[in-house]
Amino acid sequence: MDMILLFKALILGVIEGLTEFLPISSTGHLIVFGDLLNFHSKGKVFEIAIQLGAVLAVVVEYRQRFIRVCTGIGRDNAVNRFVLNLAIAFVPAAVVGLLFNKQIKAVLFNPISVACALVVGGFIILWVEKRASQFVPKVKNVDDMRPIDALMVGVAQICALIPGTSRSGSTIMGGMLWGLERKVATEFSFFLAVPMMVAATGYDIYKHRNDFTADDVMLIAVGFVAAFGAGLLAVRALLKFVASKNYVPFAYYRIVFGGIILLTYVAGWVEWAD
């Protein structure tokens, strides 16, 4: 196994873990930095698979909640409502992704598309945060969410199929637009990541199962562990951050980062992949 390749997998794993739950697009960052590092996996399976490491961080951080859910299904009305909401929110993006996954990867999985989505998404976050400051949120606890609230978050998650948009950014901003308190939208986005990423990873690994080699498994293992460690730090930090602040700093980061990519492309300083 090439040690340089393993080091690249480690770097990308850390990037995945740090960005998965921030509204700055983990997939977009993996595409951009993967291009800079000249790291490309067949069918983008590596980039999808290591997301499970970050998702595991959510399961560990909210382990008491997940244990309660697993033991309370069918017996606890609050748990049943929570699971129903997750299922409702899961469906829209899952259906659209299943139908158009191949086309999206072929056309939009490139640094320039990511840069455009980062910039546009940054301005949307600024607009949502400005609007949120003018209204009192209707839903102030995840357990108080109704099926219609979950459906609106699920519809917003469809936007995350565009790399650079951000799954967490789409669900959090969509939830806030619909009237969820910032912390509620953030927590529900964390929970929704579990079935969404498990399904996406399982589907991609199954589809490319015949392409895997022992080296691929090793790379994914390194990236997975790195994503888990970084993801655990990111989840805890973000929860503390949103307790007293908004997402405006992330919006400016998106605009600057995306703008730099576009500038280097237009100026010809970097030969980004098509």
Automatic annotation (TrEMBL):
<comment type="function">
    <text>Catalyzes the dephosphorylation of undecaprenyl diphosphate (UPP). Confers resistance to bacitracin.</text>
</comment>
<dbReference type="Pfam" id="PF02673">
    <property type="entry name" value="BacA"/>
</dbReference>
<comment type="similarity">
    <text>Belongs to the UppP family.</text>
</comment>
<feature type="transmembrane region" description="Helical">
    <location>
        <begin position="251"/>
        <end position="270"/>
    </location>
</feature>
<protein>
    <recommendedName>
        <fullName>Undecaprenyl-diphosphatase</fullName>
        <ecNumber>3.6.1.27</ecNumber>
    </recommendedName>
</protein>
<feature type="transmembrane region" description="Helical">
    <location>
        <begin position="45"/>
        <end position="62"/>
    </location>
</feature>
<dbReference type="GO" id="GO:0009252">
    <property type="term" value="P:peptidoglycan biosynthetic process"/>
</dbReference>
<keyword id="KW-0472">Membrane</keyword>
<dbReference type="GO" id="GO:0005886">
    <property type="term" value="C:plasma membrane"/>
</dbReference>
<keyword id="KW-0812">Transmembrane</keyword>
<dbReference type="InterPro" id="IPR003824">
    <property type="entry name" value="UppP"/>
</dbReference>
<feature type="transmembrane region" description="Helical">
    <location>
        <begin position="106"/>
        <end position="128"/>
    </location>
</feature>
<keyword id="KW-1003">Cell membrane</keyword>
<feature type="transmembrane region" description="Helical">
    <location>
        <begin position="188"/>
        <end position="206"/>
    </location>
</feature>
<keyword id="KW-0573">Peptidoglycan synthesis</keyword>
<keyword id="KW-0046">Antibiotic resistance</keyword>
<keyword id="KW-0378">Hydrolase</keyword>
<keyword id="KW-1133">Transmembrane helix</keyword>
<keyword id="KW-0133">Cell shape</keyword>
<dbReference type="GO" id="GO:0008360">
    <property type="term" value="P:regulation of cell shape"/>
</dbReference>
<feature type="transmembrane region" description="Helical">
    <location>
        <begin position="218"/>
        <end position="239"/>
    </location>
</feature>
<keyword id="KW-0961">Cell wall biogenesis/degradation</keyword>
<feature type="transmembrane region" description="Helical">
    <location>
        <begin position="82"/>
        <end position="100"/>
    </location>
</feature>
<dbReference type="GO" id="GO:0071555">
    <property type="term" value="P:cell wall organization"/>
</dbReference>
<dbReference type="GO" id="GO:0050380">
    <property type="term" value="F:undecaprenyl-diphosphatase activity"/>
</dbReference>
<dbReference type="GO" id="GO:0046677">
    <property type="term" value="P:response to antibiotic"/>
</dbReference>
